Each structure stands twice: as structure tokens, then as C-alpha cells.
Amino acid sequence: MIKKLIERNKKNKQKTVPSPYPLPTLYWERTLGTLLLSAFIFLGSLAPVQAKLNIIATTPELADITRRVGGEWVVVESLAKGTEDIHAVPQRPSFIPKLNRADGVVLIGLEAEHAFLPALLEVAQNPNILPGKKGYIDCSQLIRAMDVPSNLSRAEGELHPFGNPHYTVDPRNGALIAQRILRGLIELDPTHQSAFEKNHQTFINEWSAALENWKKQILPLKGLKAISYHADMVYFADFLGLELVGTIELKPGIAPTPTHLAELVQRMKKENAKLILREIQYSEKTARWLAEQTKARVATVTTMGGAFPDTQTYIGFIDHNIQSIINSQR
Ligand SMILES: [Zn+2]
Q1: Which domains can be identified in the chain, with CATH numbers?
Q2: What is the mean pLDDT of the segment spanning 302-326?
Q3: Which listed residue, 30, 61, 294, 309, has the most CB atoms within 10 A of its CB?
């Protein structure tokens, strides 16, 4: 689909075909008045109203933080749905006009969005949101990436070539994400810098209070051994003090084999792993089977906001995951 659009765009650039059917004179006379009226309305609408920034975030939790910082001066929409796999978000044609009109795109980066964003940016014909431009707000820029491979290769289906991109699940990164978004919005609209800074501070105060509360709640989880389906819980496990002993996937993006699952059961039993982190976008069946084999408990978690009714906000998204894990161990 996207390849076709790229081809079509190239063709359109090459030639513009004039219409072989000129409109009759009478039509033009009738429409002239309407056109003038439209022009006046358009010009009138420019004067008193200050434009809001039109921002596209790749994920719902990034959209929420952008909304918090931008306040009344931004309109924000997310491309991915919370229940989707960030590595497999479809390249929906409806994304193209949204990106074409956007003043900025807020993204996870570290190639998390490789399945859809680069191709869409190529066809959206919006030079302001391309990598390196101020409208390209890559939130990974302030993050210290974990699991950075020594060998940059996709040879074996490697999905994390620049390090693990699933850092938004770790609440400690909330402030760094908000900082990057604040900088991006100020660059795009310096006239509202003080409003953005004020909104940002309000968000940080709320985030900080929530973080202190979570730190107390998670104390009993320290040292708990766990597995997840995909390698998307490394930052979060580091925050929680969990020890990850494996993944259901053979490697990021590579489905489990029967041999791998048999080995995983043995390892979980040997290590006394008590927690299976089952991300909402992956199969529940394998997680339940492993739970039966090992007596570990399953906690359903999400790697993006918006997956559950209580995860519409960034703070709600983090809180949902933490409460799900705490509840699984009761
Ligand atoms: Zn991944």
C-alpha cells in the first residue's frame, strides 16, 4: 500500500495534467461571489485567532504527556492504539494526511516505530517533521538506552538495533520524556514558552508525587524473579527491582520454539520465578500454559497507554502496570 503511494507521489511530481474539460463561463460568474466571500472569511479567521500546534504522537502515553505540556496551545493525536504491538503497527493510509498537516511528531525513537513511521514520513510530504528538523521530537534523546548491542545487525530479526526502545514503561523516564517534549514545543512555538513551562511544572509535580508513592508500594517486589513475552520490560524491571530470567520469545521478534519453551520452564523452576509479565498485545495462551507448568502468577501489563480504561493518562498507564503486578502476588 505505502509502496504504491510512494510510486504515485513520484509520478505526480513528474507531470501535472491540465483538465481537458474547462468549466463553463456561467459557472465561474456564479461562483466568483462565493469565492470572494470564502476569501474574506479565511482572512478574517487569521487575524484574531492564534493557531494551536498540531502534534502527532506515535503512542497514547506520549500523546498524553504532550497534551499536558502543551495545554490549550496544542492539538494532539496518537497513531498507535494501546493494545497494538509497537513493532507491528500497520501503515494505515489515514496516517498520511495527519502527518502531512502536523507541526510536529513526538516519537519513542530507537527504531521502536520502524514498522510504520519511516515509510509514512516518506510519503507524507512534510519537510518540517523529518529527522533532524525541530518538528521531529525524538523522546529517546535524553534516555540512556539499555541492552545496546555490540553488533548493529538485523541479521537474525533483531528488533532493537540501537538498544532497547521500551523505556516509556519505566516511570523514572517520565520526567526525561516531558523535558524533551517541552523543548520541542518551545522550539516550534516560542511565543507560548511560559505557558508550556508552567504546564510542564504542574505535570512534573504530579509525576513526582506519584513516583514517591510507587516507590513505597513496590518495596515487596524487590528481588522477585520474572519473565515477559517480549524484551520490553527491562527498564520497568530495573525500576521495580525485579530480576528477569528470560522471555517467551526466542529473541525480540522471533516466536518461541517448543525447545525454547521447555528450557524456559526448567529455568523458571530452577530460579523459582514467580511472575509472568504478559503484555496485552501478545498471546495469553502461552503465558497461561507457563503458569500451569511453573505455578508462577500472570500479571497482564501494557507497554503503551490507552490499552485499558484506567490507562488513558501516562500516570494511569504506569499505575495500572504496578497494581497488576502487586495484585498478582497476593
Ligand atoms: Zn521491542
Answers
A1: 53-146+157-214 (3.40.50.1980), 218-328 (3.40.50.1980)
A2: 98
A3: 61
